[in-house]
Amino acid sequence: MVNSRLASLIRKEFIQIRRDPRTLALIIMLPIIQLILLGYAATNDVRNVPMAVFDQDKSAASRELLDAFRAADYFRLTYDVQAESELRQLIESNDVRVGLIIPPDYGRSVAAGDPAQVAFIIDGSDPTVANTALAAATLIGQSQSAELLVERLAAQGLAGAVGTAVEVRTQVWYNPDLVSSYYMIPALIGMILQFLATLLTASAIVREREYGTIEQIIVTPIQAWELVVGKVVPYVLIAFFNMLEILLAGVLLFDVPINGSLGLLLGLSALFIVTTLGMGIFISTLANTQQEAMLMVMFTLLPSVFLSGFLFPLEAMPVILQWVSYAIPLRYYLIVVRGIILKGSGLAALGPEVFALSVFGFIMLGAAASRFHKRLD
User: How far is CA 357 from CA 268, 270, 343, in A?
Assistant: First the structure.
């Protein structure tokens, strides 16, 4: 009898979701839209920065320097200007982000073995682009300087004396090409799971109260826990569907490698989903309308996005915000999902995060169940 009542309630919830085209569109389309927008746009891989060149030398040495900038993937030589004022105008109008000024005596200084200087102008209004351009220009300059030094020593018959006292051989593990999408796509799973699971659960229960149908359910021979489970189970299945949808799209669109156990990822995701669903039920007991529920969900989502390590590294935040981040469940889930997908981490390596998610799930479900029971009474 209990199973029959619960199954009927779950079936009713699925029918209600199917009859609501806006909810269906939100469930199916929103994860893909967010994945494409954030996967392509939220990246720190700055390439092809437009650059203007004011070459006053026009020598073989200056052309060699420009070839070095062209060979790098960071700059695109867009304009060849004839005056410094023209360069300034291009930067002010945002047509270019950087400018290279080569003085008239650059070639003579290089040929004579004297220090040769060039000016590299950077638009600092966008710090991300500016920092990348600065680092790339510095590296190109150092490389060009080393090549000229080797040529001069070779001309003096001292090429064999050129060497390095210390050689640093770098190795990048887990993401050798440092592709930002490999870092962002797994995090999107956590963000979308929290947003959709919390919003849909809170809205579903508030919608019953707003339409006056929850009183009809209460007067039926159904217990409070059956009502909660019947409302939650459909959204648990939807959350897993969304997660698999994002994983599949991430692999197909962005070639994100999945190095760990998919079963472990699903199991630990269930812990996080329990927390988000508990949060949704708790919000439903506070809100009287669906609009209120949505605003409350957004209020909980913003701190999670900014204080979980989703967009910004936690190490770069002030200490007080780092302490606040320990109260954000998404912080722990991002470590879990990134660890399993990128590093192939196992359960032993993720022990602290699993414990934290378990505690959060227990607290949120307990608070939600207590509050929900009182609200029904």
Answer: 9, 10, 20
